[in-house]
Amino acid sequence: MVERENLISIKHQCELLGIQRSGLYYKPKDFSPDDLELMKRIDYWHLQDPTLGTRRMSAFISNEGYALGRDKARSLMRIMRIKTVYCRPRTTISDKTKYKYPYLLKDIKITSPNQVWAIDITYIPMARGFMYMVAIIDIYSRYIVNWSISNTMDAEWVAEVVKEAISVYGKPELINSDQGSQFTSDDYIGLLKENNIKISMDGKGRALDNIFIERFWRTIKHDKIYLYPPMDGKELFTICQQFIKYYNNERLHESLAYKAPAEHYYQAA
Question: Which residues contact 63 (CB under 8 A, 6 or more apart)?
């Protein structure tokens, strides 16, 4: 019922129909077969070693028999939103357009659900093309409070996912993200300020500041998506929906005393 070629925005159509925008699935991004194969290899090696920069990434993949120079690796990693981990001081960084908020989790003790959420976006490989996925995790319980897939990374999409999570679970005290443009946008920052939510951002290049959501990306890709590559957005949505239901309600975590995230979240709530 949602018409993408319409004067009414997708967001407003969803509001009129009483459905969540995150439930929509889109056509995957269309790239050449060679580039898609390179992107799958980049994603694989990044999950194995997130410290790989463009130089070592191109060397690793070239050793597998692919033609990948450093400039091409940099271009594809930027499209995939790959964040290389490297050591540098955590500082508050500003530029001419957007303010980068400081990292607030360094010395904080997380003792309850909805105290700290973490949000991130990742590249999702498909049989033909790729899409992006955003997810929000409650750090105390590892419970995924909301997620969505899209073929674009616009700020409005991210803000809607946060808004939906707040409407269902209430607002957290703090949300941590990286310094991506979606998380410095007026839509995202404005939403958090409206709800009096503290804003925390990773140090540039330090993807492991957001380690719990990074671990979730590794889990869903290795345990599900790589094993059953989806053919289209609808199939990807179904695969993610099934896995996150299992992850939240059945998958036991050693760090949670072998409890599932949902049990830990609701037991402490």
Answer: none
Map residue 16 onto helix, strand or coil. Answer: helix
pLDDT over 90 (residue 170): yes
Query: For residue range 40-92, what is the model confidence (pLDDT) as tens digits?
Result: 999 999 988 888 999 999 999 999 999 999 999 999 999 999 888 765 544 33
Q: Are 210 and 120 in contact (CB under 8 A)?
A: yes
- Asked whether residue 197 is domain-assigned, the answer is yes
Do 258 and 140 fall into the same domain?
Answer: yes
262 and 140 in one domain?
Answer: yes
Question: Does residue 108 belong to any structural domain of this protein?
Answer: no
Side by side, the strands of the sheet bearing 116-125 are: 143-150, 130-138, 116-125, 174-177, 198-201
Q: Is residue 20 part of a domain?
A: no
Q: Examine residue 88 and state whether it is found in any structural domain, yes or no.
A: no
What is the reported pLDDT for 97?
A: 46
| 123 and 191 inside one domain | yes
pLDDT band at 215 (very low <50, low <70, confident <90, very high): very high
Query: What is the per-residue burial (b if ≥16 Cβ within 10 Å, else e) of 180-202?
Result: bebbbbebbbebbeeeebebbbb
Helix (H) or strand (E) run with residue 71 in it:
helix 70-80
Q: Which range marks the domain in which residue 60 is found? A: 25-80
| Mean pLDDT value across the chain | 86
